[in-house]
Amino acid sequence: MKQNKNATSYALAALSFLSLASSAVSPVLASVGEAYPDVSSTMISLLTTLPSLLAIPMTLTCGHMAGKKVSYRALTICGLTCNLISGIAPFFTHNFYLLLLWRALFGCGTGILTPLIMPVMMSVFQGEVPRQASLNAVATNIGAVMFQMLGGAACAAWGWQATFLIYIVVFPVLVIVARIMPEPPALTNEEKNKKIPMSLLRPILKWCILYFFHMILFYVC
Predict the structure, then answer these.
(1) Pairwise CA distance, residues 168 & 202, whole Å
(2) Torsion 35-109-86-142 (CA) sign
(3) What are the residues facing 70 on neighbouring strands?
(4) Region at 159 (left for phi over 0; alpha for psi -120 to 50; beta for the rest)
(5) Is residue 156's pLDDT more than 50?
(6) Quick check: 109 pLDDT over 60?
(7) Exposure of 211 by Cβ count < 10 A (0-12 exposed, 13-18 middle, 19+ buried)?
(8) What global pTM score does this model have?
(9) Would you tell me which of 158, 185, 219, 220 could form a disulfide with 162, CB atoms 3.0–4.6 Å apart?
(10) Mind giving me the DSSP string for 61-111?
(11) pLDDT tens per residue, range 7-30
(12) What helix, strand, coil percent values describe the chain, rounded to 5?
């Protein structure tokens, strides 16, 4: 049992590591702008903002479907496959609008993965959730730093298109998840019908709203 928990912990940390993988493109926007001088700076910036925008509706949709119409495992493999293909494909792309399409698909893949980590963590770890949540947060922040650093380094060394080869790291994560990530047990009717009391929901909403405005200011800066 402990071995299974450790394996699941590694799988969830690997998924969390990819949560902010779209940030790898941020350091190369200036180089992309030079490669496409006829494209406006607003369109160029969509390479980083479009994935985040499309991740939102995909998160809502897949969060509703997960465990009901489609298994968590199938959705996770689907999201990682989407990220792997759409992440590397821009390396072979020379049309800007096709490049934008690949980035949109990358955002869809990220949106598929976003709502899947928490249910698996809650079902497997139960009393050890804070420990695993902390590990996931560490993996997320390490991934954000590493992807930006490697993205900038690859651009400086081999050109901006080489940055997209970084997404080959999605492949080992896909293998790890396909082999060891468990499927959370289905919810009982009692759990499905259970409602969150307003006394608990109110502070959650308050912090979500504050975090929303914080992230708006953060991305504007």
Answers:
(1) 42
(2) positive
(3) 66
(4) left
(5) yes
(6) yes
(7) exposed
(8) 0.85
(9) 158
(10) HHHHHBTTTB-HHHHHHHHHHHHHHHHHGGGG---HHHHHHHHHHHHHHHH
(11) 888 889 999 999 889 889 989 999
(12) 85, 0, 15
